[in-house]
Amino acid sequence: MSKELTEQIFAIMEREMSDIGGFIVKKQCMLIGSDPNDIEPTDLPRLASNLSEVMRTFGGYEKARKIYSEIKKLENLDQVVEGEKSESKRQTMLEDLGMTCIFSAEWDKAFEYFNRLLGDARTSNDKVQISRYLRRLGFIHQERSEFDRALEYYEQALEAAEEAKDPKSIGQSSNFIGGIYWNKGMYEKAGQYLENAIEYALKAEDKKILGSAHIGLGNIHSDCDELQDAILHYQNALKYLSDTNEVYEIARAHNNLGDTYLRLKDWDNSLKEFEKCKEFAMKGGWMNMKAWAEFNSSEALIELGKFDLAKKNLDDSLNVLNKIGDRVGIGGIYQNYGRLYATKKDWAKSLEYYGKAIMVLTEINHPISLASAYEELGNVLKSKGDREAAKTELRRAVNLYQHLDLQKQLKRVLKTIERLE
Question: What pLDDT score does 117 carry?
């Protein structure tokens, strides 16, 4: 039966992801300690969770839901859980199924799993577990962009963690709260909670939390155009994460660090970081992160005059991200095509791709990327000699930077507009 189950899992992923489907299954099996050639029913709750997370990251809830639906046809996962004799293993399986439901947007079922686990934790008055499951319930709301509701759960989780005097739980809860305030653009508060996360993660000696919190602080400084501070935090994140198996977080830190070097026009260091990002992305089977590193590296290659290699990287990454439906990444790729053709003074193609980037970023409501695209388009139009059109696009960037309260970027664009008057 396990051989047949193994073949069925591979077939599901290969139908959805063609040539990279089998690779993803093997990588995720290895990460959870399962034999990729002999998948057992008891492996499925964790494997379904991992595959759903990958598919959600790659292509959104719909792709994750499709994979989960196919896996559920192979085995009754609730029965697999109930058949587990170990209480601790059974709880872990329930949590895995809850996370799978989050990644595939089966919200009611996700609430059911985590409320059940929360109820058991409250019955035994286990404050650490209460905090854990409150964070999971908060994460459901976060995934639905219900940030205020998510914050309520995370604050309750922090309260339970403090009652338990458990530094790891305090660090985790503070880290989640910091992430919410970052999403809301409340950078000062976000920073305070992320610093708190670091304080307690150091006490708990938890390198995963330390790495994640430093990435969060790096993102805040990056958004605020404080690039040297951002670099220090990304480097600190890598210092802690290098001793963990958190390959996705390691890849993300390298990608963000490479992006920061791009903004400093340090092309060689940016390319080194993107290569490291690709290396760790491949270790975990995160093809989307590999594609992000490739298309981000194209910006440095353009500046170095390596146009053919830049275009190849853009073409390759667009092919992957189209397969997996990563629209944020696709918007970024179109933006880099715009940069490429602007450098070659092919104005028509440059404007075409900036238009595509802006359309995608508008549809998915990604304001900071959209502001960047408007600013770049304005500068391209300025280089083309179309001053009035340039001012129109730059004013759109100004409106978004004002909304996000990003003062350095706002002053920079206003100065550009002033020179065009």
Answer: 97
